[in-house]
Amino acid sequence: MKTLGLAGLGTMGSGIAQIFAEKGYAVVAIEANENLLQKGIGRVGSSLDRKVQKGKMTAEEKVKVLANIKLTTSAQELEQVDFFIEAVTENLEIKSKMLKEFDTIIKPEVLFATNTSSISITKLAGYTKRAEKFIGMHFFNPVPVMKLVEVVRGIATNDETVHTTIALAKELDKTPIEVNDFPGFVSNRILMPMINEAIFALMESVATAEAIDGVMKLGMNHPMGPLELADFIGLDVCLDILEVLYEGFRDPKYRPCSLLIKYVNAGYLGRKSGKGFYKY
Predict the structure, then answer these.
(1) What CATH number did the domain enclosing 138 receive?
(2) Is 90 exceeded by the pLDDT of residue 176?
(3) 49 and 137 within one domain
(4) Are residues 194 and 59 located together in one domain of the fold?
(5) What confidence tens digit (pLDDT) does each residue in 50-97 have?
(6) For the chain, how long is the longest CA-to-CA vector?
(7) What's the gap between Cα 205 and its chain centre?
(8) What is the number of structural domains in the chain?
């Protein structure tokens, strides 16, 4: 495989583009419009600048990495890619529409991976005609730094697809861990209820946001408290994942806290909006 097709150049997509481009892959990154493309490549550039400043990369190497990323708004540019990753927003309607369209354009032998953090791989695969070649490849933010990749097998995913994806993750200097297709997989099935419970504790005035985070950082040795982490992830993303968990399991323990819903409705989305449980 020489060329990656990548749908979505947001926070996760830009990180994915960067790590592939650093390994010498040609990356064809597609977005809905030119503005989103420029914002995405700007994130890649800023990330690479930090590596240059730290002496982990030369300015010349940065230029070569950026040259490996081709920006486009045309789906036809994906005709010649060797591997495809979907990294658009965590919304089933958006993902399903995009997968249906690209499935008719990308060569039938090409593997499809999705960076979804919670939506069923089996369900997403059903929007394509290559379910046996469809797999979850869940990277973690920030992608260039975090080692874990959850490799999620759908009900129809074949062994060759799993083995190829695991090998690719290792080539990217990541640590792949194979899991099965359940709502939230392993990471968010455990993480999101913790974040949700922290929000309930805040809503019920058990403690301040700083105190809740302080207990988890000092008592549990977490590098970030759950409320700070929620702001980092994006409160809208946390809500989307909790709703997937609640719908998937029909278990009240996954019911999103009403304070989380209120914040999202108010546009308090965390770091990206300048305000969440903290101000930025």
Answers:
(1) 3.40.50.720
(2) yes
(3) yes
(4) no
(5) 999 999 999 999 999 999 999 999 999 999 999 999 999 988 999 999
(6) 56
(7) 32
(8) 2
Average pLDDT score, the chain = 97
The Cα 259–Cα 278 span in angstroms is 14
Question: How far apart are alpha carbons 175 and 181 in whole angstroms?
Answer: 19
Are residues 13 and 148 both part of a single domain?
A: yes
Residue 16's nearest CA partner among 163, 142, 153 is 142
Instruction: Read off the CATH number of the domain in which 202 is found.
Output: 1.10.1040.50
Same domain, 192 and 111: no
User: What type of residue is 103?
Assistant: D
Domain membership of residue 278 (yes or no) is no
Print the domain residue range for 260.
188-268
Do 158 and 125 fall into the same domain?
yes
Shortest CA distance to 178 belongs to which of 144, 143, 136, 140? 136
pLDDT of residue 146: 97
Contacts of 257 (CB under 8 A, 6+ apart): 196, 199, 200, 203
- Segment 207-212 shows an average pLDDT of 98
219 shares a domain with 163 = no
What tens digit of pLDDT does each residue of 110-142 get?
Answer: 999 999 999 999 999 999 999 999 999 999 999
Among candidate residues 14, 6, 4, the one with its CA nearest the CA of residue 40: 14
Residue 145 near residue 172 (C-beta atoms within 8 A): no
Outline where the chain has alpha helix (H). Answer: 11-22, 34-53, 59-67, 92-103, 121-125, 159-171, 187-203, 209-220, 226-233, 235-249, 258-266
Residue-level pLDDT at 1: 84
Cβ atoms 179, 151 nearer than 8 A: yes
Active site amino acids? 117, 138, 150, 188
